[in-house]
């Protein structure tokens, strides 16, 4: 190698710069370079400037741009302004522009009461890129992270007054209602207590009583409100709700309805909600001993009602009279079946004659047509009835007069404007409702 010339000429390489080199090569012992020489620098093909096939060869090469000098880490944050409520979970993260070659990256979070970098106190254990900010107390604090790393053997840091800070303001949160007041049905003279449960700081409670004429404040500051010795004229149909408040604001609970009825509270059927069309009917049926449900906690209102169940309901509503006959003529009605007496009584009173001369089909589902017919016959088949407005109730069927009678007496209004759906299965809820409308007058 005869000579090397750099452009730009310098003793040390600068970052973020492009360098080119011109190299002169001389052969020895009179040898010559190839006519098409293959010369590489850094594994890349160099350019032949002159001298191919001669004793002196000049080549050039342009090096890729050198990396920029890295002296300062620049931080950015997932957020720089946070407003949170007490005990709310708040997490922040720091991101840097560190190159891939960075090593020994370390994080340290600081907190300070002022919006000034460098005034903070190191937070013990906060040595990761992410940090969960505590929100146990009201107020405003500022947070920042100092990042250090090794780049090309040099230690660099984000420790700069230009680094942003994260402002975190913690305020008292609105109350949160965790349990709503519940609607109740009770007998006159009973005491009733409504309650609400809420979370939050420094809570206040204001109960309200709502009637048709408006709402008014009642009770004292507390999560419960009790009404002594309720009565039908004053309390039936009223609603109660609670406004829970603190310095952050207020929230209002659901309204709870108070029903005062001689029937008293519903049995503890979890599948019979307050306000359902059949709720009062189920209460009546339980009160009268017509049914005790399908278990101690369920009534199964949507389950189909069988022929055995409907005649049993009718028999019990009539006071469970003893049948005159001792044995049933139906082969499918066992003497010890719960509905045995009811079936014999129903046959004796012309309510049913079975599905054949020897069968009653106790487990068959009872249709709407059969249900109103059984009811009509239990009332001695009265002749009066409304005009037939149903397109699916033909004149002359076994149930035509029963449907007319049921409509006139408010027992049913059909399933639509012009439909009765005589062949549709009848649910337990529908049957006790029909019974209630027929007999609780």
UniProtKB/TrEMBL annotation:
It comes from the Bacteria. Keywords: Repeat. Residues 175-259 form the Ig-like domain. Residues 265-328, 330-385, 386-441 form the SLH domain. SUPFAM superfamilies: Immunoglobulin (SSF48726). Gene3D superfamilies: 2.60.40.2700, Immunoglobulins. It holds the Pfam family SLH. This is S-layer family protein. It comes from Intestinimonas butyriciproducens.
């Amino acid at each position: 190698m005869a000579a090397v010339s750099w452009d730009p000429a310098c003793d040390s390489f600068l970052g973020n710069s492009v360098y080119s080199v011109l190299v002169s090569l001389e052969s020895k012992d009179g040898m010559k370079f190839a006519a098409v020489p293959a010369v590489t620098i850094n594994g890349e093909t160099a350019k032949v400037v002159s001298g191919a096939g001669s004793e002196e060869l000049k080549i050039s090469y342009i090096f890729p741009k050198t990396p920029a000098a890295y002296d300062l880490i620049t931080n950015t944050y997932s957020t720089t302004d946070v407003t949170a409520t007490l005990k709310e979970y708040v997490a922040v993260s720091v991101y840097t522009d560190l190159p891939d070659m960075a090593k020994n990256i370390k994080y340290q979070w600081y907190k300070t009461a002022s919006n000034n970098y460098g005034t903070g106190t190191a937070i013990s254990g906060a040595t990761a890129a992410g940090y969960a900010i505590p929100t146990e107390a009201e107020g405003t604090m500022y947070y920042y992270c100092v990042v250090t790393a090794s780049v090309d053997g040099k230690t660099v840091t984000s420790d700069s007054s230009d680094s942003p800070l994260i402002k975190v303001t913690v305020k008292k949160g609105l109350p949160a209602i965790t349990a709503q007041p519940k609607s109740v049905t009770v007998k006159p003279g009973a005491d009733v207590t409504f309650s609400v449960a809420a979370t939050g700081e420094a809570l206040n409670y204001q109960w309200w009583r709502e009637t048709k004429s408006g709402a008014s404040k009642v009770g004292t500051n507390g999560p419960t409100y009790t009404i002594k010795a309720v009565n039908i004229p004053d309390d039936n149909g009223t609603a109660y709700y609670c406004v829970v408040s603190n310095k952050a604001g207020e929230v209002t609970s659901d309204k709870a309805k108070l029903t005062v009825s001689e029937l008293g509270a519903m049995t503890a059927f979890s599948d019979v909600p307050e306000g359902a069309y059949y709720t009062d009917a189920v209460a009546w049926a339980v009160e009268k001993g017509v049914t005790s449900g399908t278990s101690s906690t369920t009534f199964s209102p949507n389950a189909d009602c069988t022929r055995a169940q409907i005649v049993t309901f009718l028999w019990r509503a009539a006071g469970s009279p003893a049948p005159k006959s001792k044995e049933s003529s139906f082969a499918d009605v066992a003497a010890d079946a719960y509905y045995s007496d009811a079936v014999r009584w129903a046959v004796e009173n012309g309510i049913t004659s079975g599905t054949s001369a020897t069968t009653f089909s106790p487990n068959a589902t009872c249709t709407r047509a059969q249900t109103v017919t059984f009811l009509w016959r239990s009332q001695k088949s009265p002749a009066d009835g409304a005009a037939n407005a149903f397109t699916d109730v033909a004149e002359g069927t076994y149930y035509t007069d029963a449907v007319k009678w049921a409509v006139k007496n408010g027992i049913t209004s059909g399933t639509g404007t012009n439909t009765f759906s005589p062949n549709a299965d009848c649910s337990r809820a529908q049957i006790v409702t029909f019974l209630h409308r027929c007999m609780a007058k």
